[in-house]
Amino acid sequence: MTVDNKLPSPETELAARIVRLKKEKGAVILAHYYTLPEVQRIADFTGDSLALSQQAARTDARIILFAGVHFMAETAKILSPDKKVSGFIVQTLNIAK
After folding, report:
1. Is the pTM of this model over 0.85?
2. How many angstroms separate the CA atoms of 85 and 75, rounded?
3. Rounded alpha-carbon distances, angstroms, from residue 2 to 5, 6, 7, 8, 12
4. How far apart are CA 66 and CA 49, in angstroms?
């Protein structure tokens, strides 16, 4: 039997803090398919922009955080006018090759 004595990585610690804050604040994180895997792993939902906005509108979340481009957060706000919506641009996968 082996024992793993590794310390948590900074990425793991950050992800744990984000999960804790999501619960405390009543937030949901949406990540577009084009975002990096690290972002997608902490997201509650991953998909295309319209489907994500529709999914967020069906949640009880008070806050929507959208990882994508600006217009995606605007769509989420239109579908969820009573929720606080914030979009943030993250590095995306380079799929145009």
Report:
1. no
2. 10
3. 9, 12, 15, 17, 21
4. 9
Angle, helices 70-79 vs 49-57, to 10°: value is 30
Longest dimension (CA), the chain: 55
Q: How confident is the model at residue 1 (pLDDT cuts 50, 70, 90)?
A: very low
Secondary structure (H, E, C), the chain: CCCCCCCCCHHHHHHHHHHHHHHHHCEEEEEECCECHHHHHHCCEEECHHHHHHHHHCCCCCEEEEECCHHHHHHHHHHCCCCEEEEECCCECCCCC
Q: What are phi and psi of 47, to 5 degrees?
A: 170, -160
Report which of 49, 57, 97 is spatially closest to residue 77, judged by C-alpha positions.
57
